[in-house]
Write a sequence for this structure.
């Protein structure tokens, strides 16, 4: 009886607080990427590339986190 209650409690909370920080950082990187692309007079190509790679990596990590951890 106690084992079932403990297992149910651990199964109910699959979302860790760190997951919310990962999603928030992904949103911040996406906002920065859009702002870099919209720069009018001069675009910083290195910053656009670095932000693009960072955004792609964070989106991949978020996808894995949501599909493998949250909905497992």
């Amino acid at each position: 009886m106690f084992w079932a209650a403990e297992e149910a409690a651990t199964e109910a909370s699959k979302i860790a607080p760190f997951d919310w920080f990962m999603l928030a950082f992904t949103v911040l990187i996406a906002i920065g990427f859009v702002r870099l692309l919209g720069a009018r007079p001069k675009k910083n190509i290195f910053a656009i590339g670095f932000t693009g790679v960072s955004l792609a990596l964070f989106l991949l990590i978020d996808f894995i986190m949501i599909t493998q951890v949250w909905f497992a």
